[in-house]
Amino acid sequence: MTASHDVILVGGGGAGLRAAIAIAESDPRMSVAVISKVYPMRSHTVSAEGGSAGVIAEDDSLDEHAYDTISGGDWLCDQDAVEAFVREAPQELLRLEHWGCPWSRESDGRIAVRPFGGMKKRRTWFAADKTGFHMLHTLFQTSLKFGSIVRYDEWFVTSLLVDDGRVQGVIAIELMSGRVEAITARAVILCTGGCGRVFPFTTNASIKNGDGMALAYRAGAPLKDMEFVQYHPTGLPFTGILITEAARAEGGWLINRDGYRYLQDYNLGKPEPRPVLRSMELGPRDRLSQAFVKEVEKGRTVATKYGQVVHLDLRHLGAKVIDSRLPFVRELCLKYQNVDPVSELIPVRPVVHYMMGGVHTDIHGATPIAGLYAAGEVACVSINGANRLGSNSLPELLVFGARAGLAAAEYASRQGNPAPTVLALARDERIRLANEMLHRKRGRERIATLRQEMQQTMEDSAGIYRTGATLANAAATLRQLQERCADLALDDQSRTFNTERVAALELSFMLDVAEAIVNSALARQESRGAHQRTDFPDRDDERFLAHTLASRNSDGSCRIEYGPVTITRWPPAERVYGR
Amino acid sequence: MTDTIRLQVARYRPEQENEVTFQEYEVPCPREWVVLDGLNYIKDELDGTLSYRWSCRMGICGSCGMTVNGEPKLTCATFLSDYGPGPIRVEPLRNFPVIRDLVIEMGDFMRKLTRVKPWIIRDTEKPLSDGAYRQTPDELDEYKQYSMCINCMLCYAACPVYGLDPKFIGPAAIALAQRYNLDNRDEGDRDRDAVLSEHEGIWGCTFVGECTQVCPKNVDPAGAIQRYKLNAALDTLKSFLMPWAKQ
Amino acid sequence: MNDDAACTGYHPRWLRTRVSTWWWLQRWPYLKFILRELSSVFVAWFVIFFLLLLHAVGRGETAWLQFLDWAGQPFVITLNVISLLFVVFHTITWFNLAPRAIALHFRGKHVAPFWIAAPNYIAWLIVSVIVVWMLAGNR
Lengths: 579, 247, 139
What we know:
Oligomer: heterotrimer
Strand content of chain A: 15-25%
Order of helices and strands of chain B: EEHEEEEEHHHHHHHH
Number of helices of chain A: 15
Number of strands of chain B: 7
Largest interface: A-B, 58 and 62 residues
Shape of chain A: globular
Distance between the termini of chain B: 63 Å
Largest sheet of chain A: 5 strands, parallel
Radius of gyration of chain A: 23 Å
Radius of gyration of chain B: 21 Å
Helix content of chain A: 25-40%
Structural class of chain A: alpha/beta
């Protein structure tokens, strides 16, 4: 028994749901399947807090948003994509408002915007400090309107069905029953999010394992700019829970052990009592995280049970501002850190948060493989370049989710039905999965052990500062871990809701993605944005103003090539903050 | 302060057994650990066959609802040390069919959510070119609380009416319907009224009030339901006494 | 290998636990709820008692004295004391729950629940004072 649809969305978060709605609205006759390994309202979009950027102020312009994004990305952004993005973002956010999103308002009822890191003007729309939550629930609840959207809740996609050079569907496990099915389609859009769980300390949920990146990688699509991993400067120690950049946008200060606003030592401007855009605490995330590492080296950070931290000081904001603008921050600090931001300092440290890199796509969300599209964090268009600005990823979901949805629908409308040979592929995959499960009965490696070793390797080699030697070792270690992964043990041999089996599949996805990250980082011999090499500390536009493309060889190893960056109106220049 | 704590975890493996059994595990309990950390420790180190749902571990995704010592809780927000010296009993959420171990079946809620039409309904759509709807902070406050629902279903687990009569539409669905009814941009209250006024709609509720007590996000579904009941009753009275008045 | 065998048929047996008849004894909030609902029975008893009283008054002095004798018996007094406790419980829970059903606005701000419950208590107090005064005054 095989199900068949016109377009499949793998992943039901912000990008996936936006794409599904875009297709359903444009052509109600198209059958759209949303296949998600969790119920859509559990998707990680739900935990985004700060806001969503879109130009609406009188004194703001699209060009300025574009410039902020491009300079924030250290000139690795494709400028045609950025121009399309900044132009469509405000419309998408407005569309979401019409669908009921509870954007925070000025007293006269107009949409409110707040300042955000790396942005010269105020353009970040927000819904208190739960923007992602409200956006996701608005999208999910709106998607319920459309009869043409069919949902496969808690189905885990294990591979793409590629035949005749075209992607023609997916193989997925229904978690509840354990049955493995082929679901065919004329186009597939990957919206599975990032891969933060490849690292040990991350804001990301357990479900962010780079599933879509690995699926595309194994199907032959290149992964672009994987070495650019964003460390968010303010995560709670131990849990890694995100303390939104909005806390700094509202006026929070980052201070070291001596109570000193240390960012002034790092070419980020001079400290002022009120937040100054593109300066100090509102600088770009990569520079702030790097400043933390330097402070640790100077011995000016605070030692705690869970590592070195600095402090985020919100006390001068007052309870009224905190309760109206940052209520969730207060709740999280009280609950998970036993600290009340109104009267105490919040211990924070940089934490892995976002993948700038991902599946290589064009500005319509199309990958080089026919019939395969990608949107959201899983994709790399690239609008974020070497470092993403806060509040750009939520509108990215909407803009490129819609673009990929419409592009995929248009492609699908020109295709015939998937060929019967696809079912043969499906049968092979089903047999392979069954055999693998049986084999794992006698496996000797524990999932948790391999996962922890992978995470530790990534932390040590692909952190905020990297060197060639450590990266080369890491690449070798990951190769070994891949081999050991073939010998994984599965205690759980049952079919019903077997989450251990899912964990094993996720681990193998993560190893592929980790290899792409490390190999890409090793090859890029310069420092740019979030990728900092102590052995190559300068930016090298001559050799490396290019996108890294990591592809899988037939023997499983990683091949690195380079592709051009599209420059339109903003020639590469120095990144300046605080001046 | 003890170093470890005992968890008594409910197990149900439909391929092996017909009923629930309990298995005991000893897990470390540092001060920062929540029940979910304990379950993850069990799965990683002691027994990989334990199945449960989790994702964000910060109380926003709603995946990890379970019954802890008889109370519906989010296990990512419930600290082990609060239950010292233990043991702690961890079971699946009440009032739902159990698929496996701590995983419950939530298709019923998903269907009910769709039935209350949780989206903006308008007689005429406003074009994007007209800009955003005006909504003052006070108008936002009218429904804001009800929009905070994370769909964790602790309220359904706490509601005895839902336990006794699974056809009852339930607290979260009604709260979400109210979230749209009270949104000044929405014009769909009549559309939702048909579903809410059914016997198993709002009138099934007997105001036990436990839903509000267990809600981790202070949504107050009980309040939403009683408000709706009062308004519905007043509307009926009005239409009876003054049939000429437009609703 | 038969393809279809791998993908049809198996659906796990979901476990449905029947709610026990004694569900309301399992948690204190549930017991409190049932007692609250049960209190309506005692409210009904007071209404009946009051009707019996009126009926006795209507039928003249002998009937009234007989009624007083009957009402003075230990079991009736016990019943009425228990009923009074339940009715007080009923009243307090009712007044405290009333604000949850009403969302009032005054000058653009939400009226706090206290100010919706308070008038009820005040009215109760006033009426009780009047009743006690009337009864005491007619000794």
